[in-house]
Each structure stands twice: as C-alpha cells, then as structure tokens.
Design a protein that fits this description.
Largest sheet: 3 strands, antiparallel
Radius of gyration: 20 Å
Strand content: 5-15%
Structural class: alpha+beta
Number of helices: 6
Number of strands: 6
Mean pLDDT: 84
Number of domains: 1
Strand order of the largest sheet: 1-2-3
Low-confidence stretches: none
Order of helices and strands: HHHEEEHEHHEE
Shape: elongated
Amino acid sequence: IEDFLARYKKEILSGKEHKKLSKLLAKNDVPIGSHLDQFKIDPSQYLTGVQCPTCSLYAMERYSGTWNCKHCDTISKDAHKQALEDYFLLISPTITNKQFRVLTHIDSPKLATKLLVNLNLPSQGTTKNRIYTST
C-alpha cells in the first residue's frame, strides 16, 4: 500500500472537484434494466414473501405490528426491509402499494402504506397512484 501511495502522489481532482463529480455520477446513475432481464430469469421464479432473518425461510407473517416466523418463531419489526431492498435490486427501483402487498403477502393497503411511509422513501404521485423509489 505504501508503495502504491508513494507512486501515485499527484492529486488529479481537488476535494471540491471530487465532490462535484461524485454528485454528477450519482445523479446520472440510471438503472439500465431489471437484473432479472439481464440474467434471463423468469419473474415467476422470484420468491415473494418476507424472509426470516434467522432460519432464512419465507415464512414470516405480519401479526400485531410484528413479523412472526411460522417456522422458528423469530419476531422482527422490520423484516420487510430486506424484502424491499431485494426487490429494488432485482426487479425495479420503484414499487407501488399493490406491488409491495404482493411482495410481502400483506392484504391491507392501509398497512402497506404505513410500512412504506415509515421507511421515508422518496415518492411521487397522489395517494392512489403513489410510486415509492429506492434511495
């Protein structure tokens, strides 16, 4: 590492230029398409549901404000976060209330809205047509 640092001492960008370039790259970072498309994976093969952080089975159900695993009895308040992160990475950088309900096996639109709003995700649109975006 020291040899590398000694060899490349010259600073090409100032701190201010580096920050400006970073912002520009982040602003223009637009996904080219779904990873499922990229790797030719049929969307029907994507497992829906909330995965248990302990036993890794998709056996979590929402009950009384928590996610409960039917298999190992693990309880989690935020197990849906990982399901949503995976969705954003594999399927799409945006999600609707209905898509979130299908993903997490939640029946209630009101509960889905509550969970999505509590994640403080950027969103667009009116109540019925709202689209949440990954950060």
